[in-house]
Amino acid sequence: MAAEIIDGRAIAQAVRDEVRADVAAWVAEGNRAPGLATVLVGDDPASAVYVNGKQKASAEAGIEGFDHRLAHDTGHEEVSRLLQRLNDDPAVSGILLQLPTPPQVDGSALTELIDPLKDVDGLTPISAGLLTKGRPGLRPCTPAGVMELLRVAGAELKGAEAVVVGRSKLVGKPVAALLLAANATVTQCHSKTRDLAAVCSRADVLVAAVGVPKLVGAEHVRDGAIVIDVGIHRTDDGLVGDVDFDAVKDKAAAITPVPGGVGPMTIAMLLVNTLKAARLQQAAPGVPA
Ligand code: NAP
To answer: d(Cα 62, Cα 274) in Å, to the nearest integer?
Structure first.
């Protein structure tokens, strides 16, 4: 049976429409529009495309944009001072430092300077800790997008066997924590996992965040599983994911395509986080309770 294709573009658009309506309602209540500050150091074309996309989507949602572009030779201290200023600026609800940064700038250390209440990428140690402890907070955008796709696809997560392939800070670990919080029984795989196919084929829900084109094949997928492909790779045959879509599509019950699956969700969830950050800052200064 052919799998249902989970339409990430449509689901992301629905999220963006909802954020736009929520922002309008927030402003109509007399609040300042949420503000998103992006910080891009250097002129990496791919990073510039990402930042442009984030600022454009923010503007469409009624979020004010603060687009900081710094020269490729900007020093670590100067970026640090900018982040401190943005932390202190009440017009800025969310701060995003676009990674990777040039070598003289320690992007990982700088990310840790971002006020946790403005951490719309959800990557600071405080945000990661809140997630692990099951406390409210700002969640990383791509993992939050994975959860929204599963929700809209009607995945029953409570008690389900969920397998996540990948354990990165950006995707694999937070996805696993979110699935656990949703009461799935979670197994996390990585490059040292023995017999990956055997472990994956236990999954009712399989999330691939591996960074290896088409690694997940039919032998990894149980009949009727829901498969979410986070991977994205530019190849001579166009964009492909971590899942061999053609091999899997007749086994899975539902599957995300690449492109048009997880990809569009990341920006949509960034907008969700920016409005959420504005609300958190108004409700209670300090770490999210
Ligand atoms: P990453 O930091 O490179 O992590 C990859 C993970 O996969 C690691 O934990 C690694 O294990 C594991 N792995 C690598 N080879 C493996 C193998 N043969 N078997 C089992 N596990 C293996 O990558 P990432 O940042 O999580 O990104 C993963 C993919 O998602 C990439 O294709 C990336 O481009 C894509 N991505 C997409 C979006 C989006 O918006 N759609 C956002 C972020 C990332 P070890 O820990 O043992 O090394």
So the answer is: 11
Which parts of the chain fold into alpha helices (H)? 8-28, 45-60, 76-88, 107-111, 125-132, 141-152, 172-181, 196-200, 245-248, 263-283
State CA 67 to chain mean position distance: 20
Asked if residue 264 lies in contact with residue 9, where contact means CB atoms within 8 angstroms, the answer is yes
What is the atom index within ligand 1 of the atom nearest the CA of 209? 28
Inter-helix orientation angle 8-28/263-283, to 10°: 20
Q: Which residues contact 195 (CB under 8 A, 6 or more apart)?
A: none
118-130 burial by CB neighbour count: b if 16+ within 10 A, else e?
bbbbbbbebbbeb
94 lines ligand 1 (CB under 6 A): no
170 close to ligand 1 (CB < 6 Angstrom): yes
Rounded Cα–Cα distance for residues 45 and 181 (Å) = 37
- For residue 191 and ligand 1, the question of a CB distance below 6 A is answered with yes
Check 7, 22, 54, 173 and give the catalytic one. Answer: 54
The response to whether residue 189 sits with its C-beta less than 6 Å from ligand 1 reads: yes
Residues ≥6 apart with Cβ < 8 Å to 38? 51, 54, 55, 65, 66, 67, 68, 96, 98
The pTM of the whole model exceeds 0.90: yes
Spell out the per-residue pLDDT of the chain, length 289, in tens: 789 999 999 999 999 999 999 999 999 999 999 999 999 999 999 999 999 999 999 999 999 999 999 999 999 999 999 999 999 999 999 999 999 999 999 999 999 999 999 999 999 999 999 999 999 999 999 999 999 999 999 999 999 999 999 999 999 999 999 999 999 999 999 999 999 999 999 999 999 999 999 999 999 999 999 999 999 999 998 999 999 999 999 999 999 999 999 999 999 999 999 999 999 999 876 656 5
